Amino acid sequence: MTFRSHSLLGIALAPSICMVARAQEAPLQLHKGDHIAIVGSGLADRQQHQAWLEALIHRAYPDMDLTIRNLGFNGDEINVHPRSEDVPPTSFFLSMKKGDFTPPDNTKVTYKAGADFGADVIIAYWGFNESFKGEEGLQKFKVALASYLDTQLTANYNGKGHCRVVLVSPIAQEAIVGTDPAKNNRNLALYTQAMAEVAKAAKVPFVNLYDASRDLYAKTKTPLTINGIHLTDEGDKQLAPIQFKALFGREAGPMDDPKLARIRQAVVDKNEQWHHRYRTVDQYNIYGGRSLISYEGITNARILNQEMAQRDVKTANRDQRVWAVAKGGDLVVKDDNLPPVEATPPNRKEPVPYTDPEEAIKYLKLPAGCKVELVASEKTFPDLVNPVQMAFDTKGRLWISAWKNYPETSPTTKEFDKLLVFDLDPKTGKAAKVTTFADGLNCPTGFQFYKDGVLVMQSPDLWYIRDTDGDGKADWKERVLTGLDAADSHHETNSMCLEPGGAVYLSDGVFHRTNVETRDGVVRNQNGCIYRYEPNTGKFIRHAPYGFANPHGRVFDYWGNDLITDATGNVNYFGPAMSGFLDEGAHPQMQPFWDRPSRPCPGTTILSSRHFPDDWQGQFLNTNVISIQGIFRAKITEEGSGIKGETLEHLVSTDIQKNPNFRPSGITVAPDGSLYFMDWSQMLIGHLQHHLRDPNRDHQHGRLYRITYEGRPLLEPKKIDGQPVAALLELLKEPEDNVRQRAKIELGKHDSKQVIAGVKQWIETLDEKDPKFEHNLLEALWVHQWHDTVDLGLLNRVLSSKEPRARAQGVRVLGYWRDRVPNALVLLKKAAADEAPRVRLEAVRVASFFREWEAADIALLALKQPTDYYLDYCLKETMRQLAPWWKQAIMDGKTIASGNPEGSEYIVGSLNGAELAKLPKSTFALNAMLTRPEISSEQRKTALDDLAKLKSQKPVQVLLETLIPMAKTGGKAAEELARLLLSESPADLKSTRAELEQLAGGQSAETLRRFATAALIRVDGSIEPQWNLATKSVGSLVDFLGALQLLPDATLRASAFDKVMPLLGTLPAPIKAALDANGPGAARYVRIELPKGTLTLAEVQVFSGDKNIAGSGSATQSTTAFGGTADHAIDGNTNGDFESGTQSHTEENSKRPWWELDLKTPQAINAVTVWNRTGYEDRLDKFTLTILDAKRKPLFQKNHIPAPKPSLRVAVPLDPMGSIRDSAIEALVSMKKEPGQVFNGLAEMIVRGEEIPMALKGVNRLPRNAWSADKTAKMLDAVTAWAARTEASDRTSPEFISTLKIARDLAGSLSAADAAKVSARLDNLSIRMVVVKTVPEQLRFDVTKLVLEAGKPVSLTLENPDAMPHNIVFVKPGTYKEVAESVQAQPPGKLDSQGRAYVPDKDPRILAATKLIEAGKKETIQFTAPAEEGTYEFVCTFPGHWAVMHGQLIVTKDMAAYLKANPK
What we know:
The chain is an alpha+beta fold. Among the domains are: about 35-260, SGNH hydrolase (Rossmann fold, 3-Layer(aba) Sandwich); about 365-710, 6 Propeller (Neuraminidase); about 1080-1215, Galactose-binding domain-like (Jelly Rolls, Sandwich); about 1235-1325, no CATH class; about 1325-1460, Immunoglobulin-like. It has 43 helices and 59 strands. The strands form 17 sheets. Strands 2-1-7-8-9 form a five-stranded parallel β-sheet, sandwiched between helices. A hairpin with a 2-residue loop joins strand 10 and strand 11 (about 300). The longest helix is centred in the first third of the chain and has 27 residues, at about 300-325. GO terms for molecular function: copper ion binding; electron transfer activity; hydrolase activity, acting on ester bonds. It comes from Luteolibacter ambystomatis. Pfam families: Copper-bind, DUF7133, F5_F8_type_C_2, Lipase_GDSL_2. Keywords: Calcium, Copper, Disulfide bond, Electron transport, Metal-binding, Transport.
């Protein structure tokens, strides 16, 4: 069947519906040459393909030469029109004029039209999607509709005057099996009535299809809709004459008229051309962000807009044929008047030759025992081009979707994409015959079998196509879904797969705006998502909304867990954890289950075949089309509630230099147990790297190969097609996933009642002692699910299975059956308390599908047992989805998480401050208010007072009762509570002196000690008692100095001036004597640890004074994983991206992981700065830092330290003089006393080279009139010397930058000439910091030109928010292309001597380069700009990126002059 000219076969003709013409004037009067626009949502959209009404109009008005354009758009509402970026709005098409049009509010976009269309008449179909807002949304709808009509009635789209408008109601919902339309029909009736009222007020004709359709349903025995809401072809045929009469006031005429059939066929042909224009695929590349990327000076927008103009002309040509047929004649459409389209130049000038398909085998490498053979190629089967998906059917035939016109057809395409069926030789496994099942396709990116046909993706529709006459070719189709976007055909639904229970999984990538109408309302999604669709019931939901770039791969394992692959980055996810239900939005970033070797991946499968060794079973196979150009293998093992993958030897790899166009695009297990894989066989890969119409895009090649394992017999293919139910059920015991799936597909052809009856009998024959019994029983449940038949007894048996993985799947089925299982929440509660984490994970996931607070209560039960990463992730998402219900329940006084302390804590942690404040005043709520960090000071104080009243205590007593348990851990909430101590009266504080002294003790967190000390000073009314205690130890003195700054009484604070000022130079005698006796430094070991989890450190800096001494030590750690050795954390690189290769990493989910630094000798240290891993910051939350002496005696310990983001400095009072001086400086500047004297003291410190950054910071906080000019020059000399001593790697730190900024301010007190000299010296010591970012999904850097000063150091950070990995390589002038090409065939594991992929080793053309930076990561490199001026270059050398991802590096000796001359 060729779908380019839509077949009308399989449509039963109905008898004509007789209607009496009205005597009055028709509601709609047409004039010769009228342009009629049909607008609205799904009802309007689908009519362009069914075309009965349009055909009737042309038959009735043959001499008027009417031009009709269908602008319907599935999912639209009056004021809701979701489109991909910059897609032309409906208003553009309503007033389309030949030529170019640039919207005044969006001048970067130009739309091109090849023909005029100015609407004279608008037939508007609204109300269906709006009706789901119910009675509450009715008034808003009426206002919006009135405004819409006013706008349309006054619009002048045709340039000749106002247009005429007819308003049409939605149809009623039909009562099909398993549905109750009552609720929806009540709303539809309300909205129909509202439309009638608004239309009457606006004096607009109104057509009531709601009542008309209900009457039709009542008269018809067979359904007239495919799902209750969308008409079949027959339904549209029966409704069309009713619409016609309502519009024109007369009978439509006979529906079995041969002339009408000819007109309709001509209309369908015309509408197909229009549909390819109005709903063209790749809209983001034609109009959106990628449309303006230039390839050899030519953008996609430029060429594809010219093609859109051609489609306009093709549509207009077919208008003329419609008119000719309506007049009783015909017209041959020649399309010889199409406007020209410019030629697109290639951006790779030299074509890469294609290796012969047989010869290519010589360059393939496979594991020992594996053999590869050619099955088919373009040489013997010319239609096998660009194979994108394949699957074996129940007859053992191999179906392949051939995307010949990738990335999409053009207006002049002659040979279209196809769905091919290969018959294989049973002896050799090679292709013996091919049949084109469906032709005339455009971008058939995915398909899957259903009943006796196949579901095929034809964006924006999903077609169900069948062969009804047995000739092996499709001759019948139905659009079963509409509204699946294809803004980028590369990202549209692909790799369609079946779950074990029969649902089909579809997908969207980035840029897409999918809007699918369902019986439950419109399912809307922006960007990436996996969808779940039940063809038997029409149910369609968002399964996994997520920030996917392009989720090509989906596969279900033996136990029904889905593994989801985001192709662009080849990031692989454990589906059960990320597929909880969300009403809106998307799930946040989730860690992959496998650290894959490289990207990207167009297809995956699970190896399930006894033809291969036992230890190969269940392996995850992952194809790769760039970098390796082979097939990866991963061993999958259970881990907690999820899984983990381990890379094995590649299944297939190739010599890319000799076999450059080998691109494995998919792999599957054959009925005989062998593996078949497709070779996309393309020189150019990807949309973004090359122009859509690059002439080097191949439309001629495609290969198919087969892998067998020598020495192991092939399997005997099971007979499936045409088998009886009993035989098919026996096949569900087979180990091979593919056999069981195809058996269930075949069962889908049988009557469901017979199948279910057979399953019940089959269950009785199962042997409970069979090791596979639990899985067999699960298969029985999946068959019930496939046939949409609920069996509560069977469900309960599976939920009580001995096998936890079966129980988990029982929970999953329970979730999809929840509306038909009376005690669903009771069963779910039991699962949430299951001993197996996988079962608990599914219970938490399924809880998200309910819409009641009790589901949240059940999900929280998972916290009563140990959790892991996936459980934590899923629970967080479920609680987010259920928040409206459980939060309201709390407001209503419901008890949640009763007897579940962990659950209660979780609930409290999930409520924000505003929500806590709304709770009834209880001990629970008020305690939460006190201890939450985000609560405002006023709210916290109010909560304290309220709690004190509730407990009949003084506020200070409640305050300390709350604070003391928090003393060791500290944190923001504890700090804010401690601050309240200073708002209490000294008299009230005096009564709690013992508690204050306890809080001021050494076991409390630093900030709490200082607030307690400040409170004690207020109690005493003098600094003396606390000063006397402070002078006994360094720690006490530092706390005292910190407490001074907290005192609200300025006079009391300043009274310490004479005691603090001398500390800038000397120490109190008791402290000095103790230090003299013990030596200057005692710290030997620096230890970081967690109670459990994964410990990853980007960098640890240990400061002695202002010098980082960590690099002189040696590091060890508890365990090592992923190459993250301990020494990476002291290599001087603070890059937070793990892919930079500069981070430590322990084994994941360890008990008490630790990292330790040995300083080799005792050292006086004053601070430790910890740099965290980017993207996994929370792993380091609540870490412990311990400093030990040479005998491993703890000198300092700080617990529950929050996760650094990205870094955190912890003060360590083990450099006594430095710590005391730093604290003294802060105390002195806070006193605001004798600023001149303080300046002099700080100046002397700076000149001596002591505590320069802190001293300068103190100077900066003093009044400028306190600065003494006669000391400035010497101070600046000292600062310059300090800066020169600072390691280059530390010159980009915030502290260094801040210090030099203050120094420049200080230089302002010098003469202009001297200030300029100082500034120049400081500039020479500074490192210029440059940040370059990649632009997501556009394959470019955010800059095309960088300017650097010759011979000067630079710190460059490459940030990669894109989904693909990138690097940046700086090269000598004119060499970027040659450098990039030299590594295009290099495998990603081949690194240069600096550990960088795709960088030529020791190449003199390379100036500097980053490593390959993965998605969401960044790396900083430091290098010196060339001394010689010139135009150098930078480029991303990842395979395929260099052609568009490059720029210029301008090196000049005078940046200021260059930038002045070149401001842009």
